[in-house]
Each structure stands twice: as C-alpha cells, then as structure tokens.
From TrEMBL:
This is Pol polyprotein. InterPro entries: Integrase_cat-core, Retrovirus_Pol_polyprotein, RNaseH-like_sf, RNaseH_sf. Residues 1-76 form the Integrase catalytic domain. It comes from the Eukaryota. One of its GO terms (biological process) is DNA integration. One of its GO terms (molecular function) is nucleic acid binding. PROSITE patterns: INTEGRASE. It comes from Plakobranchus ocellatus.
Amino acid sequence: MALPDAHASTCATALLYHWMARFGVPEDITSDKGRQFTSSLWTQLIHLLGVEANTTTAYHPQANGMVERLHRQLKT
C-alpha cells in the first residue's frame, strides 16, 4: 500500500486501520531498521499489541527478499 510519507505515525495508522482491520493482528512483523520502525511510537504500539518485532540486517537487501524482488519489478 502506498503511503504519503514514511513517518512512524503514518505507518502505525496504516498498520492499524488498513492491515489489521482486514487481516487481524499478526504474530510478528519483519521490517528494516528505518527510523519509523525504531521510533518509540512504533515500539510501544507493537508491544501493546503483543506482536514480535524483527528487523533485517542493515545494507543486506537479500533479507528483504520478496520486497526487493517486487521493487525490481516496479523499476523495470
């Protein structure tokens, strides 16, 4: 889903009102180490929901395999 910006509040709102409203609360979330996913807002939300947060290795796009593959398709 396209977001207007990458702020923590925008990502948290999208998670709650778009993802969880449709699919429910996930057991875990894997993200990169972007500022929006390491902010106190995001970590508090994840903690309150009881979701396990996992992060990928920095500068290692293979860890985000499916997302990086989709990005490659979008660029071509």
